[in-house]
Amino acid sequence: MGDEAAYRAPAGTARAEVRDRGSRFLAIAGKVSSQDEVEAALAALRREFPDATHHCYAWRLGWPAAERAADAGEPGGTAGMPILQVLRGAGLSDALLVVVRWFGGTKLGKGGLARAYAAAAREALAGLPTAARVAREEIEVSVPLERVGAVKRLLRPPAIELLAEEYGERARLRLGVERPQLAALRERLAELGLAPAERDGSK
């Protein structure tokens, strides 16, 4: 497995809090697998802390990572980007890191805000369990019915998994494949006269 195919992801959740001149910063880190899960987690935290002044966050998904940061009403660049830089520095993906702030009455200035958000983010990651992950791709194969068995014999979970199957005149099999296994699987499918198509949303 090459480094280009391996990364780390949260294996649980963690919370940590820092305070600065009366403001309280609560950081929450955890695993997400899709933008839908990001939105659901953010909505849950907004319900949990409805009295907070800001819910700032960053997330990274897949590998190479797609990522986003949000200042959520703080001055531009003072919250989301410092949180994202902490995630990047830790080499994490499939991760959401939210820092909830309660304003304490004293303005911290842009530099102070950035330092406080980054400090809270680092504290949360210090207590976050992580696990090694292998980047994955999804491929879809259109298979004559008589060759479905031959394709299924190529499955080697978790490296090569069957994610979905549909049957009509031909079978459509959707496979999840760890990236280091992809070239070998393509060769085996080619030997069967099959040419898989890659799908969007590879992991």
Please tell me about this protein's structure.
With 203 residues, the protein is of the alpha+beta class. It has helices at 35-48, 80-89, 109-126, 148-152, 182-191, and strands at 6-10, 14-20, 23-31, 54-61, 66-70, 95-102, 130-134, 136-144, 160-167, 170-178, 197-198. It folds into two domains: 3-132, Impact, N-terminal domain (Ribosomal Protein S5, domain 2, 2-Layer Sandwich), CATH 3.30.230.30; 135-198, Alpha-Beta Plaits (2-Layer Sandwich). A five-stranded antiparallel beta sheet has the order 2-3-6-4-5, with helices on both faces. It has a four-stranded antiparallel beta sheet with strand order 9-10-8-11.
Structure in a nutshell:
The chain has 203 residues and is α+β, with helices and mostly antiparallel strands. It has helices at 35-48, 80-89, 109-126, 148-152, 182-191; strands at 6-10, 14-20, 23-31, 54-61, 66-70, 95-102, 130-134, 136-144, 160-167, 170-178, 197-198.
